[in-house]
From TrEMBL:
<keyword id="KW-1133">Transmembrane helix</keyword>
<keyword id="KW-0813">Transport</keyword>
<dbReference type="Pfam" id="PF00528">
    <property type="entry name" value="BPD_transp_1"/>
</dbReference>
<dbReference type="InterPro" id="IPR000515">
    <property type="entry name" value="MetI-like"/>
</dbReference>
<protein>
    <submittedName>
        <fullName>Sulfonate transport system permease protein</fullName>
    </submittedName>
</protein>
<dbReference type="InterPro" id="IPR035906">
    <property type="entry name" value="MetI-like_sf"/>
</dbReference>
<feature type="transmembrane region" description="Helical">
    <location>
        <begin position="225"/>
        <end position="247"/>
    </location>
</feature>
<feature type="transmembrane region" description="Helical">
    <location>
        <begin position="71"/>
        <end position="92"/>
    </location>
</feature>
<feature type="transmembrane region" description="Helical">
    <location>
        <begin position="170"/>
        <end position="187"/>
    </location>
</feature>
<feature type="domain" description="ABC transmembrane type-1">
    <location>
        <begin position="64"/>
        <end position="244"/>
    </location>
</feature>
<feature type="transmembrane region" description="Helical">
    <location>
        <begin position="7"/>
        <end position="30"/>
    </location>
</feature>
<keyword id="KW-0472">Membrane</keyword>
<dbReference type="GO" id="GO:0042918">
    <property type="term" value="P:alkanesulfonate transmembrane transport"/>
</dbReference>
<feature type="transmembrane region" description="Helical">
    <location>
        <begin position="104"/>
        <end position="124"/>
    </location>
</feature>
<dbReference type="GO" id="GO:0005886">
    <property type="term" value="C:plasma membrane"/>
</dbReference>
<feature type="transmembrane region" description="Helical">
    <location>
        <begin position="193"/>
        <end position="213"/>
    </location>
</feature>
<keyword id="KW-1003">Cell membrane</keyword>
């Protein structure tokens, strides 16, 4: 909804950071005056020092790269399968009858509960971690793609048929654009699950990654590094969400809900 604000876009874009910055200031004040024990939550300056130390040693960049690679492969594989299967089941009633019930049954099994089986199947290598991320991102994209296709306005489809549009033209000009808002919601949700799954997956006997960095820090009671790892996950999740938001503002200009973003 457009509120008619005349503020520059870059200023309105910064409003989402007001609360996080306020919380960081409050956190710094609480630790400075002893209201919050450093054993519970280290001061922001301690975390910055830990980040600088890990950056200089190269450990931080190595772990972020390892986590990003696992997340990227999981998103690519799980997202592609979920998107294609959602399209297939949404467009073809026969496929929906045969496949959707099975997919919904599997969806209700918590994918993180499969960790013992994943270790048996794949061992403790990279394949198991990517498999878990793949499962995590598959279902939101599948469900939202399927929902978007099924909820396309039937009157628009009928109008397209009246104007003589062929099946491919109906899909490309009416059905798929109508489903795009729902598909992007699925992508947004799956990105959150991607990082959540990765946090758990990287605790499975790994030698690199943000999760592994946090587990090592826990062994040595390095609370500042543990909190740093959590903040990195949060920032990566925010960057991913911002990327989808930018994508929405570019490809959904025709949609009234996204036109003035």
């Amino acid at each position: 909804m457009n509120t008619g604000s005349s503020l520059p876009r870059w200023i309105t874009g910064l409003t989402g950071w007001v609360l996080p910055v306020f919380l960081i200031i409050l956190w710094a004040v609480a630790t400075e005056y002893g209201w919050l024990s450093s054993q519970i939550l280290p001061a922001p300056t301690d975390i910055v020092r830990a980040a600088i130390k890990l950056t200089v040693s190269g450990e931080l960049a190595k772990n972020i790269a390892a986590s990003a690679e696992r997340a990227g492969w999981g998103l690519l594989i799980g997202g592609s399968i979920g998107f294609l299967l959602g399209l297939f089941n949404g467009l073809f009633r026969t496929a929906e009858r045969f496949l959707d019930t099975t997919v919904q049954m599997i969806r209700n099994v918590p994918h993180l509960a499969l960790i013992p089986l994943v270790i048996i199947w794949f061992g403790i290598g990279e394949a198991g971690k990517v498999f878990l991320v793949t499962l995590g991102v598959f279902f939101p994209i599948y469900a939202n793609t399927y929902h978007g296709i099924k909820t396309t306005d039937p009157q628009l489809i009928e109008m397209g048929r009246v104007y003589g549009l062929k099946p491919w033209q109906l899909f490309s000009q009416i059905i798929f654009p109508g489903a795009l808002p729902s598909i992007l919601v699925g992508l947004r949700y799956s990105l959150g699950l991607m990082w959540l799954t990765l946090i758990v997956a990287e605790t499975i006997a790994t030698t690199s990654g943000i999760g592994q960095m946090a587990m090592n820090a826990r062994e040595f009671m390095q609370t500042d590094v543990v909190v740093l790892a959590i903040l990195i996950y949060a920032l990566l999740g925010k960057l991913a969400d911002t990327a989808v938001h930018f994508l929405e503002s570019r490809i959904l200009q025709w949609h009234p809900g996204f036109r003035h973003r």
